[in-house]
Amino acid sequence: MTDWAGYTALSRELSAELRDDAAWRDEVRDAHEQGRRGLAGIAGRLDEQRRRLAGLARETGGPAPDLTAVAGPGGDDAAAAAVAASSALDRADEAIERADHWAGRPRLLPGMSVLGRALVVHGVTGAVAFLVSFGMFAVQASQSRASVGDAVLSALALPLLAYGVSLVVLFTAGRPRRPDPDESPLPTLSTPVLGLVVSYGVMVTCWLLFIAVVAALTS
C-alpha cells in the first residue's frame, strides 16, 4: 500500500507539472501571437508613414527621408522585434517633423525671418539698380551726353523698378513650399514702405559714396 500511495502521489505531481507546462506553453504562444499582431500593426503604420513622407518630398521638392531598417538584436524574439520597430517609428516621426518644417519654409533664404529676407532682397536689387544707373551714367559721360537730369531720373526710376522686381521675387521664391490651406494663397507683404526705403536708400547711399570717393581722389 505504501508503494501504491507513493506512486499515486508521484503521478499527481507529474500530472500537475504537465498541466503547468501546458499552461506555460499556451501563455508563450499567446504572447507570440500578440507580438506578431502588434508587429503587423507597426508595419502598417510604417508603410503609411513612408507613403506620407514620399508624397511630402515630391510635393515640396525636399530631400527624401532615409528610413533604412536598422538591425535589432538577434533571435526570433517578438519583444526585441517590437522594440526595433518602435525605434523605427520614432525615426519616422522625426523625419515627418523635419519634412513638415522643410515644407513650411520658402525656397529663398529658408533660414531667415520674413523681415530679414525682405531686407536682403530689397538691398540686393537696390545695389543692382545702382550698378545699372552708374553704367548708364558712365556710358553717357563717355559720349559727352551725360546730364544731371538724366542721373537724377535714373536714380529715381531704377529703385522703383528694383522694388517691383523685389516684390516679384518675394511673392514667388519667398513663399512656403507647401502653402497653408487656411491662409491666403498670396503671402502677406508686411514691409512695403520699408522695402521702398531700402531700395532708394541703397541707391542714394551708393551714389553718395561714389561722389565722396571721386571728390577725395580729385582733391
UniProtKB/TrEMBL annotation:
**Which keywords describe this protein according to UniProt?**
Membrane, Transmembrane, Transmembrane helix
Membrane-crossing residue ranges in chain numbering: 119-139, 151-173, 193-217
Under which name does UniProt file this protein? Uncharacterized protein
Originating organism: Actinoplanes philippinensis
Cite the source lineage: Bacteria, Bacillati, Actinomycetota, Actinomycetes, Micromonosporales
